[in-house]
């Protein structure tokens, strides 16, 4: 991932912070702990944690309060990947360039790893000591993450995605799936970052952040769909062509590669326009939008 200096440093700080949490709060069962460490240390783009950082910057937050919600959202995101890869879901063999958790360990361990990470996310948000973070901020973070991850967000999107396998969907139906499955957690990352600042964002700022995140989330998914067709397993770090093999509805299947790219570019422009009304430094949010459009994995 090609990062600006500030994002590169934020990514380094984030990795250290997550490692410190996992060392402070290890699972007592050795196999479970090995599984958690395996999936959390397997790389990944850390897009959602960096969006927390970037949104905090855009609101003028200069401290490191962003690390707590960033860790929580990455725990939830990683749990979702572990569960999505299971035989009952997408039945994938590769994730982030390594064997998926149920292949490296076993199905039961993979399920428990996901369960543990999801609970850990809310544990740290509600209880991990962080100087200067108010109880109101914690409640907001918990509320945003729970809503985005649950049965009216990411889980709902996954259920709709599974139900749509082998079916022909309209563009509206496909967008509904991905606004939930992918977009809700991306939006949560941006809004949780905005609430790192002591002063809550205004309604106008919240609307702008929502517009940016919603457009970015759909663009991210469209690029994913394109890469599933045009990429290879070695570069992607996961099974190329798995959407096609599972008869999943995709933007490429509906629009074709060229029109899907044009759609992603339109969403990118919409995301950048939304940044114009934010009060502080939006360069990191722009860089992440650039990465979303240009990435190859």
Automatic annotation (TrEMBL):
Transmembrane stretches, start-end: none
Cofactor: Mg(2+)
One GO term describing the cellular component: cytoplasm
Gene3D superfamilies the record matches: Farnesyl Diphosphate Synthase
UniProt GO BP: phospholipid biosynthetic process; terpenoid biosynthetic process
Any one Gene Ontology molecular-function term assigned to this protein's record: metal ion binding
Alphabetical list of Pfam families matching this protein: polyprenyl_synt
Keyword annotations of the record: Isoprene biosynthesis, Magnesium, Metal-binding, Transferase
InterPro entries: Isoprenoid_synthase_dom_sf, Polyprenyl_synt, Polyprenyl_synt_CS, Prenyl_diphosphate_synthase
SUPFAM superfamilies: Terpenoid synthases
Family of the protein in this entry: Belongs to the FPP/GGPP synthase family.
Protein name: Polyprenyl synthetase family protein
The species this protein was found in: Salinispirillum sp. LH 10-3-1
